[in-house]
Amino acid sequence: MISLKCENLYVGYDGKTVAGPFDFEIGSGDYLCVVGNNGSGKTTFMKTLLGLLPPVSGRIVFGGGRTHPGVGYLPQQTSVQRDFPATAKEIVLSGCAGKMFLSRADKRKAEFNMNRTGVLSVGNKCYRELSGGQQQRVLLARALCAANDIMLLDEPVSGLDPTAAKEMYKIIKELNRDGMTIIMISHDMQSVAENASCILHVGDTIYFGGRDEYYRSFSENGGR
To answer: How buried is 120 (Cβ within 10 angstroms: 0-12 exposed, 13-18 middle, 19+ buried)?
Structure first.
């Protein structure tokens, strides 16, 4: 089943193209890594998928013909987020967006996702007192509360130490094995090589294809 399809998609700001054209589709349960140089348009592409930016032209279609389903999003963490004065559980519950009152089902979902990401035991602790790895896993649990079957991640291990990064990648891989479609921006090419089922390279040349083909031909030939 198709999870996401881009048709002659160009992305950018104020009608000015930053990157494109994107013409590809990924299936349910795929693990897509988005790579490319800084400033190439990777984050612009992701914000367009989220509906935060309109396409310059072209079309995005999600599985089942939906124009914009529930998508979980884990952006790069900012210094303001790291100092947020709330408990870990309150942060996760905020992922049940658009609701004035939370149901028991919402609360169960939050606890389930905190358990999945290994932060259930720190639920009552202040977020700013947690380690960097714990904070990022709390934000991942929050994003999961908004996700149906697609998770978008923008450099999810940025600023983490190697041990915390390894744990984060492990959790993301487990989510993928459970059927979650993963779309992840990453500069960590070792992780890309180990985890991606397909790769989107954003730059002067747009490449979409299998991981092995990318390493065998595109990257070796100096793709930009």
So the answer is: middle
**Fold classification of 1-70+149-224 (topology level):** Rossmann fold (3.40.50)
How do residues 91-146 score in pLDDT, each as one tens digit? 999 888 666 678 888 899 999 999 999 999 999 999 999 999 999 999 999 999 98
Pick the more confident residue, 193 or 121.
121
Residue type, 74: L
Side by side, the strands of the sheet bearing 2-13 are 16-27, 2-13, 57-62
Residue 209 C-beta-side C-alpha neighbours within 13 Å: 11
d(CA 181, CA 197): 11
Distances (CA, A) of 152 to 102, 105, 108, 182: 24, 24, 23, 6
Task: Locate the domains of the chain by residue range.
Answer: 1-70+149-224, 77-147
Nearest by Cα to 72 from 90, 87, 92, 58: 92
